[in-house]
Design brief:
This protein is about 50% helix and about 0% strand. By secondary structure, it is mostly helical. The termini are far apart.
Length: about 80
């Protein structure tokens, strides 16, 4: 059960919650490619800007839940804003 989208979980308690997720290819992070945490942070910021176009959306609070690499990405987002 995905508690973020299952109707009996978070949506029941916070009916106006809007859940967004950002995925990444972990293999590219650990490969010898040029991708790094800054690239993932830039993607996250771009996705947030694209999804929050109206004034009302920009005023809506955001709650981030991060784990492992996601926490590093979030810290980079905070450092770059």
């Amino acid at each position: 059960v995905n508690w973020l989208s299952d109707p009996s979980c978070l949506p029941r308690d916070i009916s106006n919650a809007r859940v967004l997720s950002l995925g990444y290819k972990l293999t590219s992070y650990f490969s010898r490619s040029d991708s790094d945490v800054r690239d993932f942070a830039s993607e996250l910021l771009s996705a947030l800007r694209a999804s929050r176009t109206s004034q009302m959306e920009r005023q809506r609070p955001i709650m981030f839940m991060c784990d492992s690499l996601g926490g590093l990405v979030f810290n980079q987002v905070r450092a770059s804003t």
